[in-house]
């Protein structure tokens, strides 16, 4: 029936499930939990190291890791935007409004002091280093892998299902919203113009999307039951994660040790 | 979670998605409010406080992936979920005026606790749009803590009154056959206890939505 080419493709597809899933990159193939520990260690170090150089160095480490992991195209614009919007607001507001003795510049009620700038820089960089840990972690780790790793560690499949289904629901309901919005517009609901008109347009758009999703829950319950989701025996998985090697354990321990050292340093040396 | 029934596990993702699309529709319609806790309150009202709180927590965590400064405000969303469950158990969302009154506790939690988090975690100036108003008030000579609340309270009422109204209108439209299967659905079914002692008859007599047929 099938041509040899299709057979070959099928074989490749089938084989891809026989070996552990790989993204073809050492950092991206780290176990999600190992990478989470590394990122938490970075965040701890950012809080405890003396500012502004400590957190700034951590931010640079994120950039280096993202390039090494081959996700710089996704990570750098997102992180840059975070810096430009949140980091800048945190810094500017602090620099402008925090009182200090060495006033550098006075613009009406705003007095920019050296202390304000130093504190603003410290605070903004620490927050950015914390944000970077989160952003980088989720850029590098696919949610599927994280949930699989958690499930293998004993987290209940119901919890991981809820998380994965939430992401799916956000995309699905988002698509439905566009359809419903167009439909409601075509039957004459005002989505532009006066404030009152726009507020009253809200319910006819959201309600059908929510109610349709709600009435699909029963089908979903049946579909999962048909796949023995509620069975108490061990679940089987289509994909498997890379095995955790000795080098990975050593790396995680080394990074965690650095974080512990930075806590000790913050407690006894530089504070 | 087992005692919450099978459907609750499917309602949580829908609640989370509703939080997100509520916020997106508000942006698309250029409304000056967030409307991003509708799903939390809906699931809290239908399934109970704990599922509602979970919806709030997970929505906030997902939001934190792209804007991590929102993470401390997860406390608010969790409280909204529990409060919605508690209010729903006492039948608050069954009448319009009680629902409108319920916007007061929601808005007070949102503005006061939200303000406290902004002060404790960010020293009064968080990296959001509201921070600009706070900054302007401080520049005009107001105390920073007072400025956080002065800008937060009106903004939160403007957000929570439409939020509870939308929740009320959606709850009105949920078909009976779905209410039956949800943990707190019974609250919304016994609208008139004196009408009939046999709940089955009352359910059949209930005016239903056309969705029940589709």
UniProtKB/TrEMBL annotation, chain A:
<feature type="transmembrane region" description="Helical">
    <location>
        <begin position="195"/>
        <end position="214"/>
    </location>
</feature>
<feature type="transmembrane region" description="Helical">
    <location>
        <begin position="30"/>
        <end position="47"/>
    </location>
</feature>
<dbReference type="InterPro" id="IPR051611">
    <property type="entry name" value="ECF_transporter_component"/>
</dbReference>
<feature type="transmembrane region" description="Helical">
    <location>
        <begin position="78"/>
        <end position="97"/>
    </location>
</feature>
<feature type="transmembrane region" description="Helical">
    <location>
        <begin position="53"/>
        <end position="71"/>
    </location>
</feature>
<dbReference type="Pfam" id="PF02361">
    <property type="entry name" value="CbiQ"/>
</dbReference>
<feature type="transmembrane region" description="Helical">
    <location>
        <begin position="117"/>
        <end position="140"/>
    </location>
</feature>
<dbReference type="InterPro" id="IPR003339">
    <property type="entry name" value="ABC/ECF_trnsptr_transmembrane"/>
</dbReference>
<keyword id="KW-1133">Transmembrane helix</keyword>
<feature type="transmembrane region" description="Helical">
    <location>
        <begin position="249"/>
        <end position="270"/>
    </location>
</feature>
<keyword id="KW-0812">Transmembrane</keyword>
<keyword id="KW-1003">Cell membrane</keyword>
<protein>
    <submittedName>
        <fullName>Energy-coupling factor transporter transmembrane protein EcfT</fullName>
    </submittedName>
</protein>
<keyword id="KW-0472">Membrane</keyword>
């Amino acid at each position: 029936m099938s041509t040899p080419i299709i057979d070959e493709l099928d074989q490749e597809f089938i084989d891809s499930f026989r070996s552990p899933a790989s993204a073809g990159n050492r950092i991206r193939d780290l176990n999600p939990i190992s990478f989470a520990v590394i990122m938490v260690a970075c965040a701890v170090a950012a809080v405890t190291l003396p500012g502004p150089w400590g957190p700034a160095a951590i931010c640079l480490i994120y950039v280096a890791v993202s390039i090494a992991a081959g996700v710089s195209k996704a990570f750098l614009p997102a992180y840059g935007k975070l810096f430009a919007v949140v980091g800048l607001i945190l810094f500017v507001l602090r620099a402008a409004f925090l009182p200090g003795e060495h006033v550098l510049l006075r613009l009406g009620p705003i007095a920019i002091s050296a202390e304000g700038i130093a504190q603003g820089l410290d605070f903004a960089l620490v927050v950015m280093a914390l944000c970077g840990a989160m952003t980088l972690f989720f850029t590098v780790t696919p949610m599927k892998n994280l949930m699989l790793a958690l499930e293998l560690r004993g987290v209940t499949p119901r919890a991981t299902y809820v998380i994965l289904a939430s992401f799916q629901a956000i995309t699905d309901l988002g698509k439905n919203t566009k359809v419903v919005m167009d439909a409601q517009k075509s039957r004459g609901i005002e989505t532009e113009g006066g404030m009152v008109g726009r507020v009253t347009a809200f319910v006819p758009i959201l309600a059908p999307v929510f109610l349709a999703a709600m009435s699909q829950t029963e089908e979903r319950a049946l579909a999962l039951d048909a796949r023995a989701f509620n069975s108490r025996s061990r679940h089987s998985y289509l994909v498997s994660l890379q095995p955790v090697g000795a080098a990975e354990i050593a790396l995680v321990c080394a990074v965690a040790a650095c974080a512990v050292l930075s806590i000790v340093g913050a407690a006894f040396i530089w504070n | 979670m087992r005692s919450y029934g099978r459907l609750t596990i499917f309602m949580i993702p829908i609640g989370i998605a509703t939080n997100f699309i509520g916020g997106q529709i508000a942006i698309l319609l250029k409304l000056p409010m967030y409307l991003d806790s509708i799903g939390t309150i809906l699931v809290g009202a239908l399934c109970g406080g704990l599922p509602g709180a979970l919806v709030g927590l997970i929505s906030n965590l997902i939001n934190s992936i792209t804007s991590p400064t929102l993470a401390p405000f997860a406390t608010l969303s969790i409280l909204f979920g529990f409060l919605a469950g508690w209010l729903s158990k006492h039948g608050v969302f069954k009448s319009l005026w009680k629902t409108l009154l319920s916007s007061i506790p929601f808005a007070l939690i949102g503005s006061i606790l939200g303000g406290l988090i902004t002060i404790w975690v960010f020293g009064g100036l968080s990296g959001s749009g509201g921070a600009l108003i706070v900054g302007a008030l401080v520049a005009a000579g107001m105390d920073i803590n007072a400025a956080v609340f002065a800008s937060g309270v009106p903004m939160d009422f403007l957000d929570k009154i439409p939020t509870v109204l939308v929740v009320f209108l959606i709850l009105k439209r949920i078909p009976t056959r779905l209410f039956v299967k949800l943990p707190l659905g019974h609250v919304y079914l016994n609208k008139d206890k004196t009408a009939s002692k046999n709940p089955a008859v009352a359910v059949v007599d209930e005016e239903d939505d056309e969705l029940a047929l589709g």
